[in-house]
Structures are given as C-alpha cells and as structure tokens.
Amino acid sequence: MDNIAAVILAAGKGTRMKSGLVKVLHPAAGRPMIAWPVDAARGAGAAPVVLVVGHQAEEVRSHFRDAADIRFALQEEQLGTGHAVARTREALAGFSGTVLLLCGDTPLLRPETLTTLIRFHRSHHAAVTVLTAVPDDPHGYGRVLRDEAGRVVRIVEQKDATPAEQRIGEINSGIYCMEAEFLFANIDAIGSDNAQNEFYLTDLVAIAGQKGVTCLAMSAADADEIMGVNDRVQLAEAARILRRRINRDLMLSGVTLIDPEQTYIDHGVSIGPDTAIHPNCHIGRGTVIGAACTIEAGAHIERCRIGNDCHIKAGSVLEGAELHDSVAVGPMAHLRPGTLLHNHVKIGNFVETKKAVMGEGSKASHLTYLGDAEIGRDVNIGCGTITCNYDGVNKHRTVIGDEVFIGSDVQLVAPVTVGRNSLVAAGTTVTRDVPPDSLAIARAPQVNKEGWRLRKKQ
Ligand code: UD1
Ligand code: CA
User: Fold this and answer.
1) Is the CB of 217 under 6 A from ligand 1?
2) Helix (H), strand (E), coil (C) string for the chain
C-alpha cells in the first residue's frame, strides 16, 4: 500500500521503568524496544517513519543513524500524546495520505495487524480509526465509549474515567490510522482540561464526532499484540512473547530446540536446519549458525559466524568468532573476537583464543591461551601452551607453521615464529624463532639427587 506515513511517539522518559535509560531503548529480544514498532510500520509500507523524541533524544536518534526512511521531530517538553503528534507537522509537511500513529513502547505489534487496520480504515473512508482490544485487565488504559448505535464517540483515560466508565472492557491501544488532512487541521484544537493537564491525542476521537467525519474502531484479533510496556514486569513479559515467536519460526524452519522456553535467541539470528540447541543457550544478535550443528547447554554466542556440522560443547562463550565446518569447541572454551577456525579444528576445555587463526585440522585440546596467533594446518598445541603476546606495552604475534607439534606447557614469547614441521619439546620457553623441521628444547637439565628425602628425614 502506498501513501502511508507513520508517527511513533518516543519522547517520554518512562518513569515507571525507574531507569537511567529512556524506556524505548530498553532491549527486548536483542534490540531496543523502539526498533520493533519501527519495523512493524515499515512492514506495513510506511515511509517516512517519524519518531517523536524528547528524553535522551540523541541516544534514540543514534540508533537510527543510517536509516534513510526515518525522520525526527523533537518534543522538548512532554505535554501529552496530542502535543507530541503536533510536533510532527514540519516533518510531514507536504505529505497527504494516511498516517499511522504508534507508540514506541509496543514491541509486540505485528505489521500484518497494521496492514489490516489500514485496509479497514481506507475501505470505510474513515478520517480516524482506532485500534482497540479487550484485554484480561483493562486497568490503566483509555476506555472506548460508544453510543447506542455502537459508534465510537470518545476515549476516556483511566484517570479521568467515572466508576461506570472504568467498567468498560474495550480499551484504546494507542494505535490509530488518521488522514493527514484531518489530523493536522484539528491537532491544535486539543485542550488540556483533564486530570493530568496534558494534551491527549485521544481527544481527536471526540473532535471527529463534532466535525461529523467518520471515526471508527477496529478490534485487534490478539490483545497481546497491543500490550504497552510501562514497567520492567511488562518488559519481561513482552520479551518472553517475542522470544516465543522467534523460537517458533526457527523450529518450523527445521531447528531443534530441546526446551524453547529456556532458549534465548535474539532477533535476526539465523540458524540452519537440523541444528539442535540445548537449554539455556544465549544466542545473540548478528550470529549465523549453519546446518546440523549441536549447541550444548549454557553456550553464550554473539556476533559469530558458525559453519555446518559444528559442535559447541556446554558452557562455552563465543564472541565475534568465525568457525568453518565441522569445528568442535569446548566444553567451557572462550573464543574472543578475531578468532578464525578452519574446517575440522578442535578447541578443547579451558582454551581461550583471541585474534587467533587456526588452519584445517589443528587442535588445542586443553588449558591453553592463543592470542594474536597465526597457526597453520594439522598443528597440535599441547596442554597448557601459552602465547605470551603482551609485553606490558604492546601486543606481538606468534606464527606457527603447518604440522608443527607443540608439547605441553610451552610458552611462546612473541614475536616468535615456529617453522613448519618442527617440534617444540614439553616445558620449553620459546624466545627465538625455530627453523622448519627442527626440535626446539629449552629446559634446565634434570638433576636426580638419590637418597635426598631419606637424608632430610634423619
Ligand atoms: C496512552 C493513551 C491511552 C491508551 C494507551 C495505550 C493518551 C492520552 N492515552 O496512554 O488511551 O490506552 O496509551 O498504551 O494518548 N509520549 C510522548 N510525549 C508525551 C507523552 C507521551 O512522546 O508528551 C509517548 C511516550 O513516550 C509513549 C507513548 O507516547 O511511548 C504513550 O505515552 P504513555 O504516557 O505511555 O501513555 P499511556 O498513559 O499509556
Ligand atoms: Ca503506555
């Protein structure tokens, strides 16, 4: 559909969050809450999308720095939702069509619902259409007042409602379709004579009635979708519903989730078919996982690219790492940014890597630190190996050629190179380059003092 613009109200502080961070930037399923209604508006074909910002305006803006379809309107003082919408007059100058009005604190709203709302609004040639719902608990929401014929006449806020009005179950979702012409011709007519001395956007419903233009209500099929997040209890509830949707889509696309209620996958993560995710895994933003992988319990993965047939064992933490196919990691390994593991690499328990490249078939099976290292193929890194990459001021590189065997408990004092097919004996501290095909050994010769313990005891 064309000729649709959206306005999303996001100027409020979110007092009930009791937070130093503005409400709409609190994350839900891996992205700031406001990103969800922005995407819903885009999905319904809205362009431009105007965000009304106020509290922490710069922080909100910076989240949409690269978005060409987003415009901003500044509401310096938060004098109410009507006042907020009036601030968009400039950003929407020249636009004539349908304006979707949304709130920044409704992350569960789906684009399909907005599309249905716009179709309903347009097919009835309405000037205003309010999306309503009948939730289990209407407390706190504005109530929808209808006349005997069922026509919407007014919306009354909880704080202004009489006891009889408070018993009405149909609530205002805070989501509307309005014709731009009606909106901007009447927005300045809203007054602030109410319990909160605010300019209520909802007054446009009564104004539409006075002007004799069509004002309708459409009921949302799913009351969950319009849930507004005002506090952290509601934030957790909304995040749970978002996760359920993400997990459901993944399962239907062929991913096994052993316990979807205890699997935490952020928006935008991609996972291939026949991959199995065990409980209590956290898979964050920007991660791509291939097919037929196993991710065991308690793995924490973010900003990673993982190929096919990989096995991430329990309790491993992977951040900014790239794994090709058939790579095994963990249990309890830590792959840090800049790690690149080629096919069939094996990283075992208590191994940490950072800016480390490992060639095909190489292994570091136990208790090792590999930082700023370039390691060839079919290399064996013995237990307890450490790249000493930091001299207190600068970081230095360790280069290890193909088919090298590093024995246990070796320290490689960088910058240092071990040539291909060499062997470094267990316990060696390597401080000079090792030529190819060599043995490097650096340990104090062993002395056995026979009978020493017996003499001590006497
Ligand atoms: C509003 C509606 C209420 C509806 C409910 C649905 C009004 C008067 N009331 O109430 O009928 O049932 O939403 O969730 O519209 N905002 C601004 N500037 C302001 C005030 C608010 O940008 O000056 C923004 C807030 O940041 C928020 C949104 O508007 O994103 C809604 O404001 P909020 O104070 O949460 O309104 P409710 O009291 O929930
Ligand atoms: Ca609200």
Assistant:
1) no
2) CCCEEEEEEECCCCHHHCCCCCHHHCEECCEECCHHHHHHHHHCCCCCEEEEEECEHHHHHHCCCCCCCEEEEECCCCCCHHHHHHCCCCCCCCCCCEEEEEECCCCCCCHHHHHHHHHHHHHCCCCEEEEEECCCCCCCCCEEEECCCCCEEEEECHHHCCHHHHCCCCEEEEEEEEEHHHHHHHHHHCCCCCCCCCCCCCHHHHHHHHHCCCEEEEECCCHHHHCCCCCHHHHHHHHHHHHHHHHHHHHHCCCEECCHHHCEECCCCEECCCCEECCCCEECCCCEECCCCEECCCCEEECCEECCCCEECCCCEEECCEECCCCEECCCCEECCCCEECCCCEEEEEEEEEEEEECCCCEEEEEEEEEEEEECCCCEECCCCEEECECCCCECCEEECCCCEECCCCEEECCEEECCCCEECCCCEECCCECCCCEECCCCCCCCCCCHHHHHHC
Domain 4-226 class?
alpha beta
The rounded Å distance from CA 141 to ligand 2 centre is 8
Residue owning the nearest CA to atom 13 of ligand 1: 174
Q: Residue of the nearest CA to atom 35 in ligand 1?
A: 230
Q: Which atom of ligand 1 is nearest to the CA of 52?
A: 22
List, for the chain, all residue ranges whose pLDDT scores fall below the cut of 70: none
* pLDDT for res 428: 98
* pLDDT at residue 85 in the model: 98
Substitution site in 16, 83, 103 for ligand 1 pocket (most atoms within 8 Å of beta carbon): 103
Nearest residue (CA) to ligand 1, atom 29? 9
| Distance of CA 382 from the midpoint of ligand 2 (Å) | 58
Could you state, in order of their start, the residue ranges of all structural domains in the chain?
4-226, 255-440
- Identify the pLDDT of residue 156: 98
In this prediction, residue 280 carries a pLDDT of 98
* Global confidence as pTM: 0.93
Q: Name the residues annotated as catalytic.
A: 366
161 CB less than 6 Å from ligand 1? Answer: no
How confident is the model over 326-344, as pLDDT tens digits? 999 999 999 999 999 999 9
When the pLDDT of each residue in the chain is averaged and rounded to a whole number, the result is 97
Counting atoms of ligand 1 from 1, which one is nearest the CA of 200?
8
| CATH number for the segment(s) 255-440 | 2.160.10.10
Ligand 2 mean position to 417 CA, how many Å?
Answer: 61
Cβ of 80 closer than 6 Å to ligand 1, yes or no, is yes
